[in-house]
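Quick note —
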Amino acid sequence: MKKLFITAAIALTLAGAPAVRAQKVVPINYGNMDHWVTRVIKESGVIGGKTKHVYEIGPTQTINGAKAYTNLGGSPWGSSNVYAKVMGVVKTSNAVFPDTHGNGKCAKLTTMLEHVKAVGIINMDVLVSGSIFLGQMIEPLSSTKNPYSKMEMGIPYKQRPRFLQFDYKLNAPAGNRTYSSGFGGKKTIQGRDYAEVFIILQRRWEDSKGHLHAARVGTGRQRFGTTTANWVNGHRIPIWYGDITHHAGYQSYMGLINGDKSYYARNSKGKMVKCPEEKWDDANAQPTHMLLMASSGCGTAYVGTVGMTLWVDNFALVF
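Predicted structure written out below.
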């Protein structure tokens, strides 16, 4: 009798317990950061003529020469690493590097000053925050103006994940930020910088004039400012759907991206145009595009804390 009672109690407990939702983890292509393209580019003699290595996330290979890069092997990843050609002068910038994590590789993103010097012509520093993103950089860069217009931001995507998952490690130096665009010298800006990772789901459309528009479907965004002693593995950023301005975890930096901060994308005619977020979409809307970025800085272009370094690895989506 006692045995029957215990069995019945267990059955009732199990019947009344909430069902555990099975989770599916889907790696993002090349998100394990184990494969890198190495570009070997000789800069112009007028600025020193050094041979530089510029790294991209893609199928392992080496490319020699100053050539515009487009994503290879189905890799969806672009980066802030670039080849520029300004008035015939070849210059490179590299703030994203392959590094080691366990038995494989990871991406090391760092904020640094790129120095450009040519006797009697130019002598300037440009602050660069190491960033990786889904999309691609449009090369060769011809100026430092309007950097967002050189980034094709986002990839087609129609699913609704619950979390963005990845591993990370952070070195966050103390001190104020630096502004340096290469013109007007360096300036100190009060306040600290943060590393950042975000995932944004959008519903995009194009009007008859070729202008792109977007509504925000899903938001996952986090800033990091504390140095970690070790790797933090399997970290998850939740993705919230619809208008999240009244969500308990909402922060001002999670708001819509528009105006001068708008990212760019190609329209149906192949032209790079702004794609401003104009509204919060319905919480049940289906996205058309996914934006994902990890960066060693969170401010505007050419602003950051020199030495801020974020290591990331094993990007995946959790359903």
